[in-house]
Amino acid sequence: MIHFVITGDALSAGTEMMDADVFPNYNLLLEQFRGKELNERRIYRWRLQAQWGLKHFKTGAQRKSLDDGSFIRSVVNCYVRREKTLSWPAQLPTHYRDQSVRVTNLAQKGASFKRSCLMFDRFIRYNSNTGTRIAIHQLPDIRRTYFKHHGEILRVVDPYHLATLNFIKNPLEDETNLRAVALDRYRAVEERDEKSGYFLRAFEKQLNIMERLARANNIKNFYICEDPAQAQLIDPDRIIIPNFKMVRQAIAYDRGLTDNIISRAYNEMVCAAVKGKISL
């Protein structure tokens, strides 16, 4: 049996792939939010997911409120698991019909490569080595990261996300403080990046960690590189796509409410690239 293990961000997590089939008047919704700020669209989508949960959660869902943060998080987690069934990793077995293929998709919306390393390490720790394991790492933008503070984690997705952190209202004072800490820390690493190329050096360090984990556990790593700067640090024989950003931007794939790709043709494109590189 071949076991594919996938890490990555929304581009591999199937984010928004369900939305058009779940939310009513979806095309009209896209038009209404076309000129809105990305963060406003993100928040509205969370509320739509919670409304979906009110209809589909069986145990006590009707008694929950859209202002109940723990309820919304549980709904979103359920929704994310279903989204993954429509992601490109979920389609991989159909491209290897003559093989026994299993897929574990560790990709998360907004993930950094640093977080992918953590997820990959956890997977190895808690899963026994059965069959032939092949890892495909879809590499996010190197500027993504996350910060820990008193045991809590806050992800920084991109410069736009950084700019909106100050404006997110949250009744929990601790979380507000956490965001402020992350904002200050990210500004500091941006300054270090300008002086010494911090982000690329951090990426190279995380890449070495990923390689050590794979070698120690008899896993072969392959990579989908966001840009050529990442590809220059990786053995070309193990690169599936060397400039993923350019490849996907060359085609006008349909996008959802929060700008994630929702086209099934995109899934086919990535699967074909994987099959072309990895023949079993």
Structural summary, described in words:
With 280 residues, this protein is of the alpha/beta class. The protein folds into two domains: 2-144 and 199-277, SGNH hydrolase (Rossmann fold), CATH 3.40.50.1110; 146-196. The chain has 13 helices and seven strands. The strands form two sheets. A five-stranded parallel sheet has the order 2-1-3-6-7, sandwiched between helices. A two-stranded antiparallel ribbon has the order 4-5. Helix 11 (228-231) links the parallel strand 6 and strand 7 (239-241). The longest helix has 24 residues, at 173-196. It starts with a strand and ends with a helix. 28% of the residues are buried. Mean pLDDT is 86; it is low at 166-172.
Put the structure in a nutshell.
The protein is α/β, with parallel strands linked by helices and 280 residues long. Helix 6 packs across helix 13 and helix 7 runs parallel beside helix 10.
Give the name of the CATH superfamily of the largest domain: SGNH hydrolase
Q: What proportion of the residues is helical, as a percent range?
A: 40-55%
Secondary structure class reads: alpha/beta
CATH fold topology of the largest domain: Rossmann fold
